[in-house]
Structure prediction request, 314 residues.
Amino acid sequence: MPVKNYDQVWHNGKFIPWADATIHVSAHVVHYASSLFEGIRCYDTPQGPAIFRLKEHTDRLVNSAKIYRMDVPYSREELSQAMVDLIRVNNVKHCYLRPVVFRGAGEMGVNPLKNSVEVYILAWEWGKYLGDEALRKGVEVCISSWQRIAPNTLPAMAKAAANYMNSQLIKMEALTNGYTEGISLDNSGYVSEGSGENIFVVREGKIFTPPLSASVLPGITRDCVLVLAKELGYPLVEQNIAREMLYIAEEVFFTGTAAEITPIRSVDRIVVGKGQPGPVTRSLQERFLSIVQGQAEDRYGWLTLCGQPVAAAR
Ligand code: PPE
Prediction:
């Protein structure tokens, strides 16, 4: 159970209590991991609760389902509205939203096409993903002995539950060896991503990040950094990154909905730069947080304001 979950859950167009949001153990998803999901933050802004980049997350969810030949029985507009409604019904100020689309009960066997498609949206409070001090002080990470899923095995552009079996191996190995997070290399041995984050490297005045062809999730926070780097005047290059570049970089940082912008202090116990968040990471982090928290002008239209709680509006 999350630290604090919100009671109302959206299921196939209806609100149900958290305790009733259960599935049968024969559901296809349990046996064959047939599930696509999203993670979205809703921030507490001076204008009320605001969902961050709702459109992009909804688009990615529908695209993840499309890759797996799954027809989501709700339109993008209906899904987006459901998330706004969920915030209002639960009277939430800030939370993490988790829409999930999966194959339910029906036939047994690998063929998923005869099973129902279920859509749920959960909401809970999620603090700092990589620890309370992570954003301020940075985290210690390692290169994983596990490789990222290779092209033509599991599609990295889909945010599919199955991909997270690979992520779990990376994460557990890192934790077992005393690190906060693990970074995987791709099929060709280049840097791919963290178990739940994209990665960026700062060297000689430029920012580098692996291209989408390096089996990375097309991260929405990654995209924010592409936009903000431009705004702040930092040249940014999407290119293959050799493992050793992380060791000799001036700065390395993670991005993700849960991780936001988290500095990396060391890689394989080799200190990155001065061993503390560097100026480029800090300026991007500051700019990002000021936008998501509604302190700066929302010049890119990234926030969806949820308005008043339903009860108060009536
Ligand atoms: N790569 C992976 C593998 C990944 O899981 C995430 C998000 C990202 C990159 C960053 O993508 P984006 O959130 O769009 O910027 N991971 C989500 C799930 C974490 C979890 O433990 O669950 C998240 O951050 O919400």
About this structure: Residues 8 and 17 are 5 Å apart (CA to CA).
